[in-house]
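Field log, afternoon session.

UNIT: design team B
ACTIVITY: writing a sequence onto a fixed backbone
BACKBONE:
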């Protein structure tokens, strides 16, 4: 009972800390939750104004996380934190002004919003590791673990709350059916995201407790290693074999696909790159072989995709979907080339370390911080 009370207090403190650490994100999440509940209460399609607000708050929530990690990474921004958040809020409002004259939420609006969200996601994943201040692979692993933990908690909480509501409706009195949607909206939109943010450590903190928590958060449990090495990697490998077989079929038949190849390789690239980064800290045979083979296989698949897109562009012209498929294809190709020739310790493309420069000198040169602050890597010289 004492442990339960302490866990509740610790979780509550973490949630309040996340509110003060990510104020813009929490504000956008709260507004999104309220808008979703309002949309449910309408029992009809929401107006265009509500939909535009939803897209605006979606982008604002990711922008707030990127702004906070930028402040934590750069001391100058930390001193101007209020100004940084004011600029982020103005950018969010500016995005709403961009959406304001749009006559409808078309595919172009959805695609551009998702691209902007993806850019913010890449930013707050990469910024803490800028110039080697932290290990990019450890940061990615931490984000994945905390997201998985948050989703698990939210799933259990959703099942429990829905069971309580159902029991109340059956045994005591009639309950409005909308209460299910309200409860799930609060849990999945607000609580799950806030809990995920509360679990994230200060990756660039000089405090010893924060460093210890960040190191603990980046540890790889056995269950996670099994999930990545013996489930995710074989699935990606099987999908790669299917795409490779299709590639040889094209070479024999000389008939290029009619448009379905682009989204398939896009999903393959996204999933494969995610597994590659998560497997970068693993040393078992499956992970080592995957890190050697996947980047080269990705280059082959993306080249096939780009040729297919080029044929489609010549035949039918450029469209919004083909443009973004082409853009992500180029991004995947660049990642494949980089991962093929750079060690996994350079997944963040950090310019901090150079061959021949002692790691301790490198730390002082770029960050002017004691060496123990920088996570040590097997491929680099320790302090």
């Amino acid at each position: 009972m004492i442990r339960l009370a302490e866990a509740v207090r610790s979780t509550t403190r973490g949630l309040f800390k996340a509110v003060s650490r990510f104020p813009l994100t929490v504000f956008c999440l709260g507004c999104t939750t309220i808008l979703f509940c309002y949309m449910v209460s309408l029992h009809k399609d929401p107006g265009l104004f509500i939909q535009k607000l939803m897209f605006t708050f979606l982008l604002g929530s990711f922008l707030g996380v990127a702004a906070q990690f930028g402040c934590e990474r750069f001391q100058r921004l930390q001193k101007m934190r209020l100004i940084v958040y004011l600029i982020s809020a103005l950018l969010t409002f500016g995005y709403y002004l961009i959406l304001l004259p749009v006559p409808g939420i078309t595919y172009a609006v959805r695609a551009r919003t998702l691209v902007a969200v993806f850019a913010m996601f890449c930013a707050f994943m990469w910024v803490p590791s800028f110039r080697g201040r932290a290990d990019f692979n450890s940061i990615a692993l931490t984000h994945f673990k905390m997201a998985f933990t948050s989703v698990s908690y939210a799933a259990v909480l959703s099942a429990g709350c829905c069971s309580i509501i159902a029991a109340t409706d059956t045994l005591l009195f009639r309950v409005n059916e909308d209460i299910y949607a309200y409860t799930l909206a609060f849990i999945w939109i607000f609580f799950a995201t806030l809990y995920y943010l509360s679990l994230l450590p200060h990756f660039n903190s000089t405090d010893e407790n924060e460093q210890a928590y960040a190191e603990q958060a980046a540890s790889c449990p056995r269950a996670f290693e099994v999930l990545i090495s013996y489930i995710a990697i074989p699935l990606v490998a099987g999908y790669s074999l299917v795409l490779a077989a299709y590639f040889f079929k094209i070479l024999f038949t000389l008939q290029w696909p009619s448009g379905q190849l682009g989204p398939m390789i896009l999903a393959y690239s996204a999933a494969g790159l995610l597994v590659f980064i998560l497997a970068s800290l693993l040393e078992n045979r499956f992970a080592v072989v995957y890190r050697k083979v996947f980047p080269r296989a990705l280059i082959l698949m993306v080249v096939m995709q780009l040729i297919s897109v080029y044929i489609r562009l010549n035949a039918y012209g450029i469209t919004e979907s083909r443009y973004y498929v082409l853009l992500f294809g180029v991004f995947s190709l660049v990642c494949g080339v980089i991962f093929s020739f750079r060690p996994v310790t350079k997944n963040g493309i950090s310019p901090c370390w150079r061959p021949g420069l002692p790691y301790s000198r490198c730390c002082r040169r770029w960050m002017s911080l004691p060496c123990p602050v920088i996570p040590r890597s097997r491929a680099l010289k320790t302090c």
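LOG NOTE: Residues 2-217 form one domain.
NEXT ACTIVITY: expression trials, pending approval
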